[in-house]
Write a structure and sequence with these properties.
By secondary structure, the chain is mainly β. It folds into 2 domains: about 350 residues, Beta Barrel (Maltoporin, Chain A); about 110 residues. The protein is built from 3 helices and 26 strands. The chain has a 22-stranded antiparallel sheet that branches. Strand 21 and strand 22 form a beta hairpin. The chain is extended.
Length: about 475
């Protein structure tokens, strides 16, 4: 890391570089000879760079541009299985992953004396490339070992992928992101005796995501395998490759969401100790997507597209009481939302329609699903003891999610409601050593409507510890930290 002034009392910069190499712990062996082919196949390298500047052309104006870059390369997958014996990787080819992104940001702050303004503009540009070995899943050993092979069939004639470096199927995937965020925020500069404090602003975000996948397979080998199992022409695929060459599947998706929000929150001191707060956020959110599929695995060519617009309104309110300088009591009620998204379409695919109908699926499903919302209620207290050396805090909360999302295998209504309740006490002791202890208790239940049944049942949201606890500690001016959790 390097810090240096550019112009005294006007501008300076900071640059930092970071590099890490992880050696890996998975070795590759030949499944036929047992010979060691390569050690530490899952080694990885990461590079990080950050550059920032601070410019103060006037006493009330601060400009801070910055750029952050990260590049992580993993040579191969880190998964392995002890049950496989010596060759624990269970893959035939390397599966590298390269994830890199950059974040450019600009922050401008200006103090108008009674009001402060802050402008933030940022961009995330990300690209991830990865290769997956599908030999042992789509067309290889694990699938073929579970086939219902006719009695007396000689399995030795099946062209199984038995050598490292020879894959019958591999997939190339690319994920891309291009996100722009802009926000302008105004904050009151409060004095000790001011009764009103407030914050407000305008927020905008445009997020684009792209997804591309291509699966390449040894088509000639597949045909010979299917012909050996089921006779000429095969029983799973059309004898003609619909995409040409050795490409068996292709997918190209584009997603875009935008958020435009106007927000504000104000706190008014009814008495010197009692403050009432009220906040509101008005949002316009849009979502659009298109998806193009082709090849065997999609049941032929398909194209889907859709768009949606919503206008969530999310309020927040609550009182706080500063009983003494060391004792604060508060309560809040707030509403939140999560934007909707896209669904894959099965009913519109001719290849899937008959099977889906036989399984009881709907003849049509929505391509987009709406946002869901949640109400959160909390009351708590923060106490300072021993002149501020010890801080104790605790809260009770209740969360009610009106229509939570869930994944449906077939047609079924969405859950009617879900609730979380809990307690979150915490305490902290401060002097030269900073330490804290936390203990939480939470429980969750949902009310679900069953198809063709009016009864409602309570269902758990999944296993979770009821009383997790932790105690991190740090020492001032000391480069040591100990966490127990």
């Amino acid at each position: 890391m390097l810090d240096s002034p550019l112009v005294t009392d006007l501008a300076g910069f900071r640059v930092s570089l970071w590099y890490q190499h992880e050696g890996g712990y998975v070795d590759a062996y030949s499944p036929t000879t047992g010979q060691l082919l390569k050690r530490n196949i899952n080694s990885s390298n990461a590079q990080v760079a950050r550059l920032s500047m601070r410019i103060e052309p006037a006493d009330d104006l601060t400009i801070t541009p910055s750029y952050y870059y990260q590049n992580v390369r993993q040579a191969d997958r880190a998964t392995y299985s002890e049950a496989l014996g010596k060759d624990k990787s269970n893959f035939n080819i390397a599966q590298p992953d390269n994830d890199r992104f950059g974040i450019a940001a600009l922050s401008v702050e200006y103090d108008f004396k009674p009001v402060s303004m802050k402008l933030i503009v940022s961009n995330l540009d990300r690209k991830q490339d990865r290769i997956d070995d599908y030999s042992n899943y789509g067309e290889g050993r694990e699938i073929l070992n579970n086939l219902d092979v006719p009695a007396g069939f000689p399995p030795t004639i099946l062209p199984l992928p038995a050598q490292k470096g020879l894959a019958t199927a591999n997939s190339f995937t690319r994920n891309t992101q291009d996100n722009w965020t802009e926000e302008v925020r105004f904050t009151s500069n409060d004095k000790k005796d001011d009764r009103l404090s407030w914050i407000g602003g305008l927020y905008f975000q445009s997020a684009k995501q792209g997804y591309v996948q291509d699966i390449y397979e040894n088509v000639a080998q597949l045909f010979s395998m299917y012909d050996a199992l089921w006779g000429g022409g095969g029983a799973l695929y059309d004898p003609q490759d619909p995409l040409g060459g050795n490409t068996s599947y292709t997918e190209s998706d584009h997603f875009k969401t935008t958020d435009l929000a106007l927000y504000g929150e104000a706190g008014f001191k009814i008495t010197p100790q009692l403050t009432a707060s009220l906040g509101l956020r008005l949002t316009r959110t849009t979502a659009s997507f298109d998806s193009t599929l082709g090849g065997w695995w999609s049941g032929g060519p398909a194209y889907f597209t859709g768009s949606d617009v919503e206008h969530p309104v999310t309020p927040k309110a609550g009182p706080s009481w500063q009983a003494t300088p060391d004792a604060l009591y508060y309560a809040t009620a707030s509403k939140g939302f999560r934007a909707g998204g896209a669904n894959p379409s099965l009913a519109s695919n001719p290849t899937c329609q008959s099977d889906l109908a036989a399984l009881g699926g709907d003849s049509a499903e929505p391509l987009l699903y709406k946002s869901d919302s949640v109400w959160s209620y909390e009351r708590g207290s923060k106490q300072g003891l021993a002149g501020g050396a010890v801080q104790v805090s605790g809260s009770l909360y209740w969360i009610n999610e009106g229509r939570p999302r869930r994944c449906h295998a077939f047609a079924a209504p969405r859950p009617a409601a879900a609730r979380w309740t809990g307690r979150a006490p915490a305490n902290r002791w401060r002097r030269r050593w900073n330490t804290a202890a936390r203990r939480n208790c939470s429980s969750a239940a949902g009310r679900r409507s069953r198809p063709r049944c009016d009864a409602r049942v309570r269902t758990p949201r999944g296993p979770r510890p009821r009383w997790p606890w932790g105690s991190p500690g740090t020492r001032a001016n000391c480069a040591r930290r100990c966490d127990l959790q």
